[in-house]
Structure formats: C-alpha cells, structure tokens
Specification:
The structure is a single chain. By secondary structure, this protein is α/β, with parallel strands linked by helices. Among the domains are: about 80-170, no CATH class; about 315-530, P-loop containing nucleotide triphosphate hydrolases (Rossmann fold, 3-Layer(aba) Sandwich); about 550-615. It has 20 helices and 20 strands. It has a six-stranded mixed beta sheet with strand order 5-6-7-3-8-9, with helices on both faces. Strands 14-17-18-12-19-20 form a six-stranded mixed beta sheet, with helices on both faces. Strands 2-1-4 form a three-stranded antiparallel beta sheet, covered by helices on one side. Helix 7 links the parallel strand 6 and strand 7. It is globular, with a radius of gyration of 30 Å.
Amino acid sequence: MASILQAEKISKSYGTRILFEKLDININEGEKIALIAPNGSGKSTLLRILAGKDSSDLGGTIRYKDGIQIAWLEQEPDYDPEKSVFEEVFSSSDELSRTIAEYENAILANDPKRLENAIREMDRTEGWQYELKVKQILTNLKIGNLDQKMSELSGGQRKRVAIAGAMLSDAGLIVLDEPTNHLDLEIIEFLEEYLTRTSSSLLMVTHDRYFLDRVCNQILELDNGKLYRYQGNYSYYLQKRDERIENFNSETERARNLFRKELDWMRRMPQARGTKAKYRVNAFYDIKDRASQTISEQSMKIDVKSARLGTKVINCKGVSHSYGDYKTIDSFTYNFAKGEKVGLVGSNGVGKTTFLEVITGTLPPLAGTTDIGETVVFGYYRQAGLEFTPDETVIDVVRRYAEVATLSDGTQVPVTQFLSKFLFPYSTHNTKVEKLSGGERRRLYLVTVLMKNPNFLILDEPTNDLDIISLNVLEEYLAEFRGCLIIVSHDRYFLDKLADHIFVFEGNGVIKDYVGKYSEYREYIRELEREKTPRPVKEPKEEAQIAKKGLTYKEKRELEALESEIESLEKEKSDLEAALSSGILSPKDLTDKSVRIGEVISLIEIKSDRWLELNS
C-alpha cells in the first residue's frame, strides 16, 4: 500500500508541559486508524498537526502524497454565523463543489443565462451524479433547510453540517475528532456505515467503542508520550495492550534482578573501579535505566458515598409539557423505583432534556404532577458541561461546593485529596480551568456532581470528551450504584452496559417504555421495517428452472422494459438540452426543465446500472 502521510519527529509542548516528543507516524492508503490516549495527552493537538491545522515544535516534518486532499472535522467545528447551511456545506474549494453550488444558486436566482452556463458546467464536470450523492448525504444527515443561517442551528445541527462538508470533499484522508459527539443514534449508525464503506484513509479520535470497533482496522495508542500501533480493531487492541504491559513489566522485573547482581559487582573493590571492563560499566547504567521503568496505569477512582434513598423516589402522574404547539411530554405517568437504571433515546430536539428538567422540578409541567420523595438528592450532570469564570482554578471550582468530600465508607477527606482520585494531583489544583482539555473539564465536572453524594443520578451525555479509560471506571461505578440512574447518551455501548430499560421519545410528546437493552430495541425496529418491506413474489417452477440456466422470465421482461425506458429517457434528455439551449424559455420553464434534466440523468444512471447487471 502506498503511503499518503509520513510524519517524523513530531513534538508539542505548552510551556513546561510536554505533550509528546519526536513521534513518527505513517498512514497508508485504505488504513482506518483510531487514536487512543488519556484525556490531556494531546490527542486533539496531534490530529490538528497531522491535518495541517497546527505545526510541530522542534522542527518535526510531515510529508503528504502529491495531490492528496484532507477532510478535517474538529470537536467543535468553526463556522461563519452569517453563512447559510448551503454555503457552509459547499465551502470546499474543489471544482466539483463550486460547480454544484453555482448550479443550485442559478436556480434560486432564476437567471436563464446563468443557469444555461451552470448546466453546461454540470455536463462538463459530470456533476449530476455528484449532485445525487449530495442530496443522499444531506437526507441521511437530516439536513433540510439549506437557507437557514448557521447561527440559528443547535450544536448537533452544526456538527451534521460539518460532517456533510467532510463527506462531500472527496478527500483521500479523513481526520475526525470525536465525530459522534452531539449526534443522535440513527445518524451515528449512518456515519458508521459510510466510513466502513469509503475507500478513503481515516484517522480519528472517538470514545464510542461500538463505532470504533466496527469502523477501524488499526489502533494507535499514545501512552506516556510514546506511540504503539496495533493491527486490528478495538477488541484486538484490548487483548494485545494487556499483553504488552504484562511483557514490559516482566522484562522490567528481569532487568531489576540483573541490576542487583551488577550493582554488587560495581560495589566490589571500588579502588579497582578503573580496571573494570568499560563495556560492562556502560551496560550497568543501561540496565539501571531499564530497571527503573515500569508501566503503571493511572485511572480515576470513584469512591463516593450515596445518600440514603427511601421507598418513594419520583411519582409522575399525567405529566404534560409543550412549547407552543409542539408537545415535548404528553400525559406521562410513571413511578421511579430505587435501583432503577433507565436510558433515554430519541432524535435531537425531541424533548429529552425538557423531560429531565420537568421530573427534577426545575421546570414546572403544564399539566399533571411530579411528586419527589423527601430523601431524593439529585446529581445532575448536564450536557452543557462545567460553568466557570475565566480566572477560576481547579481548586476554586471544587471549593464552591464543599471543603470536604464523603467517601463510600463514611470517611471525610479534604477536597484536595478527593481531586487526586480523579487524576487531578496537587500540582494541577491551581491550573486555570480554561487551560484544561475538554476531557479534563468533563472529569472535573463529574467531581462537582459526585461531591453532593447523590442518590438519584442524571447523566446527560456523560461520555462526550471522556477518554475510554475514564469511561470504563465510570461504568463500573454506575453498575454498582444503588440509587436511581437516568442516562441520556448516544454511546450505544454505554447504554447497553448500564440501562435495564429505555424510554423511547418518538416525538410529539410520545414516550414509550421498552424493556431491554438499546441494541435489542434497534434490532426490534429493524425487524418491524423488514416486515413492512414487500417480499418478492416467488417465481413459478418453470421460471425457476430458467433461472438456473440464465435470466428468469421476469428478469427477461425487466431487461426488455429497461431498454425501452433508457431509450425514452435519452430522447427526453436530448429534448431538454435543446430546449435549455434555445434561449426562448420563460424563467419558470427554465427552472422546471433544469430540475427535470438532473432527474432524467440520474434515472438513466440507475437504469443503465441495472441493465448492465442483468446482462452480466
């Protein structure tokens, strides 16, 4: 496989803090690589450097294959608030994107001469098939109103627009930083399928383990400033990483045993040190360095006491809520029980966050009642994340809530000690929060939520920006959590592992309770869709015999019909081209015929493909 990117001696530091030093990376055609590292290790920085959006320190170099295009998706994509969705999607500078954009703008402008030129360019660049691809991608990403200003979109909508731009760029290398954040589950599944099928090379950071396992065929692990490559998916990586650590620590133990022997040799007859073999003295210092190395995995330790939770938790009766004519909750009745773990799923904007605000009493219902038990202590981890002022440090934020924290055994510890359990050593306590990475801020936010010793935890998108190691620790804690738990997450693995049942938000206030895991629910939905799809009528026996030798009777009739249809469409295409070139059409006729010629060309492509399939 040909190399499309070669990076040598890539380094990055901020002040005295070194993220990584002298890394060498090679990416070949067709490779789909996931980068894994703890929060704060510099994953996003490394992606930016490789995508050409940032530079390496200390003279590192990156060489790209000639003519390679790179599609870059940030965690929080930049955008021009004054641009329309259409303009943002087609902001790529390549010729095909400009041609499609000009064609669409010419239709909107209702300018016959401009439209005639645009159609000529569409023919020249073969843009009609590309336009069909554009419409398919926009439809699957649920991007409808192309005239809407970017400033009017939600975070999830802006992310979808940025993804559409990356998918349409026809890039040889796609670089994605947390692509699944803010996306609903249906769109994540579409993106997963697209990236699995694309021939482009891929480099991405993601916390979504199902997504990672199904899309990627290689893993790059950034550990203590060094890179390790694993030829396989995430499941294979987990197995081989444990073996690597075990082997490394075994070799370290052997080096320590040898070091003890060599140390004894060095100490003997110190007056004769000058006569000792120089090569053995040098080897001693090499062994000493190796013996001092070890891999100790740092991970958060969640050790928090939960307040006692009584029998009565939250009783909802006939709860309804709406914004104008749009219903978010319609006559919801349910009694939450102690120890219950519920997942909330549904499209963005369907009302999940409103539901959480209502049941916790933050937002009053427009009808019905929510009766909250006296012993309930909420811990609400909001999607918006941690709120802080520019001058606040890590310790300032935590001390807003308390000076001490209570552990699971009832012991009270200072917040400085409590922070260390969440990988915030004393040296970081006076670091300004704005200097932390996205994942570090999320971890600090989790500290502030758990300090309250909640017995009813609400986690709204807790997996966004958290590294996989921290996610595993959080999952272990939540699996043993004795209180009540509600999770809103687009991470299918996280939902499957923790939620006993799910509330499905279907829109217009309808909330259905599905008992089972999210993956089981998705399979149930797929089965319903399969049942709705008409099944092909079985052929008679004599036609089945024909099928063994060649085309079935039905396929022969289809082939004859296709030949006639293609001929008819080709004639219509010629007539449309002649009409569009005549210069005598009214603006309305010009617009109608230009739209129709695009449809006709697409139909010819589809029917020609089927004709070739039958003939082969």
